[in-house]
């Protein structure tokens, strides 16, 4: 319930939201957790394994119990921590991990079976019958376990990614972070101050302390006012720095719109990559629970959280509160409660020699050994120095001491150091280059100490950055020493929880030790401790202390599991912001794109490009009909295709020819000016990288053409070869793929079509010639090359004229009985001619395999030559390129395997496979290209084709891969 | 004799959101000038009439609306003028139609662009006179600092995606206000 006059919530701004269908009232500044506590809602969730009723435990992002689903119009987000989710008008939330209602969860039957559900239960129980695992056990277990549910639909919410840079990144805006940011900002450093809370100030908003004589929140407000007035400071509230990476780069998740009603363009979250020259980790500390029997009831909370709810949210977490603690600091919680008029039943101090002077009963040497209250704490039992006790209480505030929030210091392999004095791990210095932990994150647990530390590390950072510090007076603050006496677990009959989120108890950890999982890493995996959404923030220390005890080792000897990024759960939607659907990759559009779409051509992706698949004419019911018509059109008249997607690289210099000789297997230095040559390029390992034609435009000027698929790879390869093998050569190259639009004009009427558009008709322009031509006054490049087997040309114009030329060529072609052709027809044409694509040169084939070993010139060296000559890469044992003639009407069978007729169909008997397939009206058959063991010696043989995927079992005749115009008469016509 | 009709890379009306403005611009001729080994003096001589010098990495040389922008190892783009005769000093390649140019201006321009470009583009770190080759999302770009914002060169075929991504960043940033 609310406590009058307390809290930093804006009481003049009431907000209503729903939880499990019921409407609740809260105020701006509330979290779902604080508003539900104010409304006396005690059960907010069900535990992972036993489905036990659970209430709010903490007031921060480490919350293991109060995990809820937030339901929006376009998304449903599970495992949201109610302690982080701010309320806003219209917020819809619900509890999760239940069957039936939250109060009467049917799966709570698991709790009764708890004696059986110890660690390793599944491993031991569901071993047999083996076949039952996948069909019976696993689905049942998955149904019962697990946390929130997904909608099963795409998350259509809007997310954002961004980059930021600064001199100094301050992580956490408590007293340490604030003073550090102020110190650096006044000195002129470029500062980012990031804090995961909606409101900056850290514990000063909750602990009731004063700074420089003013209430903590007032001092915070004054510092923030100054910081936000400075142009060199960026304040990033609601931003959790989630990971530390190489080069001073930090990942951070900002909750941009999660605390507001959704609106268009407002991102839900932003994932930041912040590059900082220096960083200060001022992330504070996390209070740790005590594992006493039945310590998981709603109403049992962290003492610091009870204080936060009181001082920050104006909420009393119970009517009659009991404090159970092993340190001095927690006493302030009881005092604050009493000062606010909340009854404190008793202070149970586990230490025998602590002070007993408080305005309420204080019991020393206390232990809680049992609790009761199914849906909320009613009673605690135990013993203390004076004997046994039973106390009626509805809220138990526990404090087992504090752990520095040092996770980020471990993200690059650093291990924390054990501090006997604090009974906690503290950061190892220098674990992350450029990052220094300070304040509570470094084990300094007084406000005064934090302010002094924050100031000191900021001055050190300024010195590193070469900036001279400006004057910042250190404010006065409390500095009572932190005194703690470790208490990890209390023995007793009931279960004592360590990991609330994953339902791991002290018994489970002891069992792990007993069964030989004595390493902390093994214990973690055996019990699942620390593997829930809170990643062990509440339980790691306790679990390893219990493990240390069970194995008779000291805590530092036992060690701690590794903290890895991210510090808090980071949604994949934020990491992949902008990448959903078509945002996945850039789209590349041809100049002819609109012209093709205007003709109804379905566009298919080829690399990042969109290319027309075929151009349907009225009445053509299937793609095959259109494709077959387009093939016949090219063979009989003329076809036009946009081939601008092929990579084009302009190569110039006195050593250009020498350079080509090095990267190609064959010789280019002998190519005459005005001629084109086909070339083959190998990778350094000797396998084929790419093929294409290169034209010699001038004595020292070449134009290389690559395949569409390998355009980027070849460019990179040339750069690599240039920089590593011949950096001093007189050669320069640059991609001109985007600078030229290029169209294939193919078929017996191709010359006639060209002459209809060229300013001067082409006369003597033999096969493999190239040269400049004029087109409406524009200088174009003409190449006599063909990928179809017909007389063919490719004409290139500067890109801005591409659309115009395509439309003109197509219109004229149609007048001549031709027209445009798409990728399907292009494929049939090249298969008929036996031309290869990356279906054949797929990275595992050699020049020998594709029958081009003669193209590897014996007269010169080239990249990959030596490696290509390795014994296993040549010879009859290799699978070699062959053609396959298959009965017409056969369904496509690319990927099918080839078997010798009569052989067993098995993995080891496979003789090869099919790479390309085409229906060929021309040959009256279906044609395949493929690789067959010793294939070139097997022309004429009947081979068996087995396609398990499509359920095909066929035969084909092995033949030469060139089916059409073997002697190239048409090409040269 | 047929006339070929030239088309721009992107036909988009300028977009203004708050103080931020995105527009497609025609830069005129773009020529890649790749210096051959040992030709520095000849290059300096050829550039003299233009009042330009060959730029250092990540920078540019500009005079009277013409700029020479570093785009790679010993390579720069001459923008806004027909290339003079560089003789044997450089490999010269016409790049005019291959690039789409977008101009992003306004006081939030750096913040918008830093949604996609992983570099510190704020004026203090990236003042006028600087130009970089940088990834823009998954695309390769040339980013040139101008007084009022940035000039962004992107592959012509990807211009629509670049526009879309920058527009989304502008809208997203505006929605935060």
Tag the structure with descriptive keywords.
heterodimer; A: 973 residues; alpha+beta; Ubiquitin-like (UB roll); FAD/NAD(P)-binding domain; 6 domains; 22 helices; 21% helix; elongated; B: 177 residues; Gyrase A, domain 2; Alpha-Beta Plaits; 6-stranded antiparallel beta sheet; 5-stranded antiparallel beta sheet
Number of strands of chain B: 11
Q: Rg of chain A, please?
A: 37 Å
Largest interface, by Cβ-Cβ below 8 angstroms: which chains and how many residues each? A-B, 59 and 54 residues
What distance lies between the first and last C-alpha atoms of chain A, to the nearest angstrom?
94 Å
**Quaternary organisation:** heterodimer
Give your account of this protein's structure.
Chain A: InterPro entries: 2Fe-2S-bd_N (IPR042204), BFD-like_2Fe2S-bd_dom_sf (IPR041854), FAD/NAD-bd_sf (IPR036188), GcvT/YgfZ/DmdA (IPR028896), GcvT/YgfZ_C (IPR029043), GcvT_C (IPR013977), GCVT_N (IPR006222), Sarcosine_oxidase_asu (IPR006277). Chain A: Keywords: Oxidoreductase. Chain A: Residues 880-965 form the Aminomethyltransferase C-terminal domain. The complex is a heterodimer of chains A (973) and B (177). Chain A has 973 residues and is α+β, with helices and mostly antiparallel strands. Chain A folds into six domains: 1-154, 2Fe-2S iron-sulphur cluster binding domain, sarcosine oxidase, alpha subunit, N-terminal domain (Ubiquitin-like (UB roll)), CATH 3.10.20; 160-285 and 404-465, FAD/NAD(P)-binding domain (3-Layer(bba) Sandwich); 294-399, 3-Layer(bba) Sandwich (FAD/NAD(P)-binding domain); 590-645 and 739-830, Probable tRNA modification gtpase trme, domain 1 (Gyrase A, domain 2); 648-735, Alpha-Beta Plaits (2-Layer Sandwich), CATH 3.30.70.1400; 875-973, Elongation Factor Tu (Ef-tu), domain 3. In chain A, strand 3 and strand 4 (53-54) form a beta hairpin. The longest helix of chain A has 19 residues, at 447-465. Chain A is elongated, with a radius of gyration of 37 Å. The model of chain A has no long low-confidence stretch (mean pLDDT 94). Chain B is of the alpha+beta class and 177 residues long. Chain B folds into two domains: 15-27 and 98-176, 2-Layer Sandwich (Gyrase A, domain 2), CATH 3.30.1360.120; 30-94, 2-Layer Sandwich (Alpha-Beta Plaits), CATH 3.30.70. Classes of the chains: A alpha+beta (973), B alpha+beta (177). Chains A and B meet through strand 8, strand 31, strand 39 and helix 20 of A and strand 3, strand 7 and helix 3 of B.
